[in-house]
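Colleagues,

For the teaching module next term, I've prepared a clean inverse folding example: a structure given as tokens, and then the sequence designed for it. I'd like students to try predicting residues themselves before seeing the answer, so please don't circulate the second half yet.
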């Protein structure tokens, strides 16, 4: 058990300071170990979430340079605690969140909602912000489920990872039918303006483009790539920046857990985007894993390669499935795998957080897609904590 050491606590000093750097709305503005700006942009105030994380929240400031109580540490002693939620533990080691996907359907289950409230600091809309949910017909936006998620997150103090603006899947047929570049460019820009623009200032990270590569690193065939070539990615990121200047913009993909063509292609692409001045902040590695897959012990290596681009990285859809039925041995192995996967983020300095793709095995996408597999999350179908919860905790605190 790791506890906050008394001698370390004695080294903490609370100081009130006023500095000129302005943090954007939703950005971090203080906390133990924080060395960035501590004043918030006009219209927002630096609010202490806990000793390790303060955030610029909108709507409560009248001045453009608000002073804030900043907790500063005079020692670099390791800080960790064995108590508190998964999210509090992630923040205690200097990261932004421990998150989960959620939406109106799952949050309507009181047991699910209670766990998200208690344990998670960030929610990612599982389906409600996808193109087929938000713009079924050109220019006609249906946002009620997405609004529900955003309102829920805001009222419960959770960060939001927007997911996802441009993806070949869950795409209405009217988009897939477009054949000319000018029309598709406008359609992408209008879609991003309609969805990301609606929530400007409220979204922490956006998955701007999702799954643009095949596993060998070639670009995936899609209407976007077929009509616009890889320039659709540049177009999408520029449109997202215009629609929501404060959100951090991510490219997201799966099978980035092992070295190979896809990781190499991702590094090459983001290197080109950065050089071209395209506004991109991070790379999401989905991390849909299988218990005891041989790549898991080494997954920190490709994550480090992605982080070496200088961008932030995150595990964005972590789950670790097994062949059903589960048993004590598989659950113990899964726990160990969760520890390794979460620690892969923890040991990567640029890794800002981990999101699990759900809370309870009751609602996981896995059994529907991989028949005979499941039990991939931290709580079982009856909302009992699994050994994997202990593993994830150990990965954060390792
Ligand atoms: O979990 C999502 C499931 O409810 C949907 O039916 C499915 C449709 O494609 O998408 C699932 O989420 C996916 C995510 O958006 C992107 N990465 C893969 C996820 C699992 O399929």
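(Answer key — instructors only)
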């Amino acid at each position: 058990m790791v506890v906050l050491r008394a001698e370390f606590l004695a080294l903490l000093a609370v100081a009130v300071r006023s500095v000129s750097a302005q943090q954007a709305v939703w950005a971090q503005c203080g906390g133990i170990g924080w060395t960035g700006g501590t004043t918030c942009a006009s219209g927002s105030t630096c609010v202490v979430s806990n000793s390790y994380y303060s955030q610029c929240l909108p709507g409560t400031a009248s001045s453009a340079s608000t002073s804030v109580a900043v907790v500063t540490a005079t020692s670099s002693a390791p800080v960790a605690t064995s108590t508190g939620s998964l999210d509090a533990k992630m923040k205690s080691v200097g990261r932004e969140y421990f998150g989960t996907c959620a939406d109106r359907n799952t949050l309507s289950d009181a047991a699910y909602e209670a766990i998200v409230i208690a344990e998670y600091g960030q929610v990612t809309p599982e389906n409600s912000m996808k193109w087929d949910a938000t713009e079924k017909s050109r220019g006609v936006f249906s946002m009620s489920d997405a609004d529900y998620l955003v309102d829920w997150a805001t009222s419960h103090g959770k960060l939001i990872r927007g997911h996802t603006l441009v993806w070949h899947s869950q795409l209405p047929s009217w988009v897939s039918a477009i054949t000319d570049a000018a029309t598709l460019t406008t359609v992408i820009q209008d879609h991003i303006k309609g969805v990301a623009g609606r929530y400007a200032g409220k979204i922490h990270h956006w998955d701007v483009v999702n799954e643009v590569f095949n596993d060998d690193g070639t670009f995936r065939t899609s209407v976007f790539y077929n009509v616009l070539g890889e320039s659709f990615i540049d177009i999408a990121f520029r449109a997202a920046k215009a629609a929501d200047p404060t959100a951090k913009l991510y490219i997201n993909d799966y099978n980035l857990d092992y070295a190979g063509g896809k990781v190499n292609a991702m590094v090459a692409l983001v290197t080109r985007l950065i050089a071209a001045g395209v506004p991109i902040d991070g790379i999401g590695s989905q991390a849909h894993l299988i218990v005891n897959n041989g790549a898991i012990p080494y997954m920190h290596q490709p994550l480090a390669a992605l982080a070496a681009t200088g961008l932030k990285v995150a595990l964005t859809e972590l789950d670790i499935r097994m062949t059903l039925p589960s048993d004590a041995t598989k659950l113990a192995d899964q726990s160990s795998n969760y520890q390794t996967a979460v620690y892969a983020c923890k040991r990567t300095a640029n890794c800002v957080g981990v999101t699990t793709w759900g809370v309870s095995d009751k609602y996981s996408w896995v059994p529907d897609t991989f028949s005979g597999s499941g039990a991939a999350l931290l709580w079982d179908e009856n909302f009992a904590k699994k050994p994997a919860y202990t593993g994830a905790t150990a990965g954060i605190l390792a």
